[in-house]
């Protein structure tokens, strides 16, 4: 646990990376829905004022205009809170972006329960589920600054629409600089024969910490970063299923329609029956509080994940 170092929020890494790229490419545009400040894009606007378009709090227009610009050859990064981007403008994402095959880069900021005490209206725990049901849109949730930087670099020339989901808190550094990143390919941080954690986005760091706790007890624990939900690295899941006793999926999303659902469906359809536990936000009125408090309540913390893994492993062995 002590080996992890805390770094800047992913949004800051996103904004700095995008500014560097846009300074060298005038076709890169930012289209924002009153999110210049919350998206850490103030320096971008000051440095490249001709490459940022402010639409205001009008998410349907935001996505429609972005699709139009992309259809004209611009490399468009559309920035808005994830909760509104993927609900208010879902029809435009479906028709103007995905169906029309306009390679817009949709950046959902303050995702999951990042807005904390603002409550369920501002939580985005539905976005994986609704976007997974739409053909022709990729979904990536980076877990640290490294994954954020790499996915933004890849997104510039990504040939398909893509949704990139980020929170707002400082992130732990989970990868070495020479780690290979590719959209649609999981990153294996460690392999284990007793337990394998499969996590996406911010909860990955909690899974890494939980693995450290369990390793101190003599267990063999694996951790895999499932940063891409679409395309989905089925081979990585099936390989892990062959060599581990139990699997625990972790996500800052509803337990319905996200990472856990993907894994469960894949395992069952391929004849694997390792014991799987899906950790996320249950189907209930979500508690109100800070992100930290909500994570604690639902066991998305190192101690909670370790205990879930222990119980699942004991149930498997008994």
Short recap of the structure:
By secondary structure, this protein is of the alpha/beta class. It has twelve helices and 14 strands.
Keywords:
318 residues; alpha/beta; Rossmann fold; 7-stranded mixed beta sheet; 12 helices
Which bin fits the share of residues in helices?
25-40%
Number of strands: 14
Number of helices: 12
Number of discrete domains: 2
CATH fold field value of the largest domain: Rossmann fold
Low-confidence stretches at least 5 residues in length (pLDDT < 50)? none
The radius of gyration is 19 Å
User: Beta-sheet strand percentage?
Assistant: 15-25%
Explain what this protein looks like in three dimensions.
By secondary structure, the protein is of the alpha/beta class. It folds into two domains: 6-172, Thiamin diphosphate (ThDP)-binding fold, Pyr/PP domains (Rossmann fold, 3-Layer(aba) Sandwich); 187-317, 3-Layer(aba) Sandwich (Rossmann fold). It has twelve helices and 14 strands. α1 runs parallel beside α7, α3 runs parallel beside α5 and α8 packs across α12. The radius of gyration is 19 Å and the shape is globular. The mean pLDDT is 95.
Helix and strand arrangement:
Elements: E1 6-9, H1 10-23, E2 28-32, H2 42-47, E3 52-54, H3 59-71, E4 75-81, H4 82-85, H5 90-99, E5 105-109, H6 127-132, E6 138-140, H7 145-155, E7 162-165, E8 170-172, E9 187-190, E10 195-199, H8 203-215, E11 221-225, E12 228-230, H9 234-243, E13 246-254, H10 259-269, E14 275-281, H11 291-297, H12 302-317
Parallel strand pairs: 2-3, 2-4, 4-5, 5-7, 6-7, 10-11, 10-13, 13-14
Antiparallel strand pairs: 1-8, 6-12, 9-11
Helix pairs in contact: 1-7, 3-5, 8-12
């Amino acid at each position: 646990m002590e080996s992890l170092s805390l770094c800047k929020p992913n949004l800051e890494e996103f904004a700095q990376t995008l500014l560097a790229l846009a300074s060298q490419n005038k076709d890169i545009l930012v289209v924002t829905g009153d999110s210049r400040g919350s998206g850490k894009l103030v320096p971008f606007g000051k440095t490249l004022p001709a490459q940022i378009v402010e639409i205001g709090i009008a998410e349907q227009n935001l996505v429609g205009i972005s699709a139009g610009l992309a259809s004209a050859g611009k490399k468009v990064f559309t920035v808005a809170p994830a909760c509104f981007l993927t609900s208010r403008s879902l029809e435009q994402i479906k028709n103007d972006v995905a169906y029309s095959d306009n390679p817009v880069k949709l950046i959902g900021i303050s995702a999951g329960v990042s807005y904390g005490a603002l409550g369920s209206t501002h939580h985005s725990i539905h976005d994986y589920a609704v976007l997974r049901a739409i053909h022709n849109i990729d979904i990536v949730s980076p877990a640290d600054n490294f994954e954020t930087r790499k996915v933004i670099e890849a997104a510039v020339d990504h040939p398909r629409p893509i949704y990139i989901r980020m929170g707002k808190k400082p992130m732990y550094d989970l990868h070495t600089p020479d780690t290979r990143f590719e959209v649609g390919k999981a990153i294996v941080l460690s392999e284990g024969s007793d337990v394998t954690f499969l996590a996406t986005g911010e909860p990955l760091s909690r899974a890494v910490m939980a693995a450290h706790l369990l390793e101190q007890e003599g267990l063999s624990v694996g951790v895999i970063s499932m940063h891409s939900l679409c395309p989905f690295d089925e081979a990585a899941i099936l390989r892990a299923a062959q060599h581990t006793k139990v699997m625990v999926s972790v996500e800052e999303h509803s337990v319905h329609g996200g990472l856990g659902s993907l894994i469960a469906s894949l395992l069952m359809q391929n004849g694997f029956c390792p014991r799987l536990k899906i950790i996320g936000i249950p189907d209930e009125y979500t508690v109100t509080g800070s992100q930290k408090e909500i994570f604690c309540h639902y066991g998305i913390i190192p101690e909670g994940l370790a205990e879930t893994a222990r119980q699942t492993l004991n149930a498997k062995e008994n």
